[in-house]
TrEMBL record:
It comes from the Eukaryota. Residues 1-32, 57-98, 313-336, 395-452 are annotated as: Disordered. Residues 404-413 have a biased composition (Basic and acidic residues). Residues 7-22, 67-77, 315-334 have a biased composition (Polar residues). Residues 82-98 have a biased composition (Basic residues). Keywords: Coiled coil. Residues 154-227, 346-373 form a coiled coil. This is Uncharacterized protein. The keyword Lyase does not apply.
């Protein structure tokens, strides 16, 4: 069974009705391009895994070599930076074991990529916080200057100025009425008027200082509003925030204000935080899925080792027939013991299939398309193997009164075992030293991702 492409598991945003606002085409980031490349490699390895399983069950030869020509499985070759995208050369189809190892390596690579993307998102959040902090400081400063300007008229100096003017007017009347004290009163009058003028000049100077500070602040704000955010730090807004974006950066600069800019940057910050949460969830899902796949591969590999041993004992001794793994046994076994061993193999297949099915159900509950495809392929291979063994057991268990018929059925049972033997030997033709993935592939990278 060919697994569905993993591209189907990507999240597709909801389609909204087209609006009259212009649409912006965002260039994919370097992280998104790397993720697309890893997903393409995963799809290639899944196809190779399915084809390897099918060829193994049909008794075909499987060359367990990587697409790069080396015996070490790799997800993708080393890519050097180029000024323009080149069409990748057609890669050689890897073997089943290389595909399995490559699937695990690709999952770990995706987890590491998500970890780097998470660090970039945290940096963006930090920069957004700094920008919002500057905006709030400007707002507080502007509010304080407005309040100080409004309080000038109600301060004690202003009231005293008015009081001194009233007193000067009263004294002027007194001068007219009292000619004898005119000189003294005029002197006092001049003094009072001078004090009032000095205080008034002080008040006007303070008002002018506040006005100039407010003008400089408004200039800084206008410069900030005229400069649109660059694409490096601004994330594309969702459809629900399209009006906020249009009201700020698509409006003329003279119509922009801090309230709209603050709403825009708050939206940017919320989206960055949400993206960080989504990235954490994807990272944990990839790590957990990698562990589940490693357990499944270990179970299947252990079962195949036991199956080698059992089938080597079940094959009849013949100089022209040898097992794909071991030499034939020196002594023959009875029909009853032959049937019991084959029944025991079928029970082991059921146990492994039940364990893989439980993992498949868990992957379906969590909507892990990648793991569903890989586990489904393994279950299909076990099902085909079980059918072959069941057919051989049925042929061996039937009885015939004639000796020739008994020998014929025994030969048919042996042919079924030979077919299953060749099937598994073709898909598992590897050295004994290469039975398990390297420890650094199974543990080191996953441990690094967990600890970061």
């Amino acid at each position: 069974m060919i697994p569905p492409p993993i591209v189907q598991s990507q999240y597709m945003p909801p389609q909204y009705p087209a609006t009259t606002q212009p649409r912006f085409v965002e260039k994919p980031t370097e992280v998104e391009e790397k993720q697309q490349e890893l997903e393409a490699d995963l799809q290639f390895l899944l196809d190779a895994q399915a084809e390897g399983l099918i060829q193994g069950l049909e008794g075909g030869n499987v060359d367990d070599r990587s697409s790069t020509g080396s015996t070490t499985p790799t997800v993708h070759g080393t890519r050097s930076p180029a000024p323009r995208r080149m069409r990748p050369p057609r890669r050689r189809q890897p073997g089943l074991r290389s595909a399995r190892k490559g699937i695990y390596s690709s999952i770990i690579a995706l987890a590491n990529l998500k970890n780097g993307e998470l660090q970039n998102v945290h940096a963006e959040v930090h920069e957004h916080d700094a920008t919002l902090g500057q905006i709030e400081a400007w707002e507080k400063k502007r509010q304080g200057l407005h309040e100080a300007s409004r309080n000038v008229d109600s301060e004690e100096e202003t009231i005293r100025v008015q009081r001194l003017k009233q007193e000067a007017d009263a004294l002027q009347v007194e001068i007219n009425r009292v000619e004898l004290s005119l000189t003294e009163m005029k002197t006092r009058h001049r003094k009072l008027v001078s004090q009032a003028a000095a205080m008034e000049n002080s008040v006007q100077a303070r008002i002018a200082s506040y006005t100039e500070s407010l003008r400089l602040l408004e200039n800084d704000i206008q410069k900030f509003l005229r400069r649109s955010p660059d694409g490096l730090h601004a994330r594309p807004l969702a459809a629900s925030s399209a009006e906020v974006k249009a009201s700020v950066w698509q409006l003329p600069p003279q119509r922009r204000n801090l309230d709209l800019a603050k709403a825009y940057w708050n939206e940017q910050r919320e989206q960055a935080l949400q993206h960080a949460e989504d990235t954490k969830f994807e990272k944990s899902a990839l790590i957990e899925g990698a562990g589940m796949w490693r357990e499944a591969v270990t179970e299947v590999t252990d079962f195949e080792k036991q199956l080698r041993t059992e089938m080597s004992a079940l094959r009849p001794s013949s100089p022209n027939s040898q097992s794909a793994w071991d030499d034939p046994p020196s002594t023959s076994i009875s029909d009853n013991e032959h049937a019991d061993r084959m029944q025991h193999i079928l029970e082991k297949i059921d146990n492994v299939a039940e364990s893989l099915h439980a993992k498949l159900q868990k992957a379906e509950e969590r909507n892990w398309k990648l793991l569903q495809a890989a586990l489904g392929a393994e279950l299909d291979a076990l099902s085909r193997g079980k059918q072959i063994l069941a057919s051989a057991l049925s042929a061996a268990g039937s009885k015939s009164p004639e000796t020739g018929g008994h020998e014929l059925k025994k030969a048919n049972s042996s042919e079924e075992i030979d077919a299953l033997d060749k099937s598994f030997s073709a898909s598992r033709a590897v050295n004994d030293d290469d039975e398990e993935p390297p420890p650094e592939l199974l543990f080191s990278k996953a441990h690094d991702v967990d600890t970061e």
